[in-house]
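User: I'm writing a tutorial on reading structure tokens. Could you give me a worked example: one chain, its sequence, then its tokens, then a sentence or two explaining what the tokens reveal?
Assistant: Sure. Here is the example chain.
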Amino acid sequence: MTGTDMALAAVGVPCALPAGWSELFSRGAAVNPDPSAFPTMGEIRGRLREDHERLQKAIRSASPDDLERGNEIRPGWKQNATDAVHFFAAHEFYHAGQIALIRRTLGRTGAFG
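And here are its predicted structure tokens:
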């Protein structure tokens, strides 16, 4: 979900992950062996859908100048809002595909749908 958070930031919408999620999901985070420490798939899907709705609303209300405005996504990474949103959407779908394959291998239902 940090991809969606960065896309929101690129269009000027402040956002933050729920408390404790960064510690569980950030790159390099130690794997917590306690499954109850993690949010449910329903909570993750719900948050993702909320953030995508916020992103779509922000894009619809942005002017062309807002979307072409250059900004710093992360230190040293400058990109306009349009290109950043496209990049993060593709990046998240890549990971969604990975999750779908893992869930299928584990005999679980699809992550979405």
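What the tokens reveal: The chain has five helices and two strands. The chain has one domain: 2-105.
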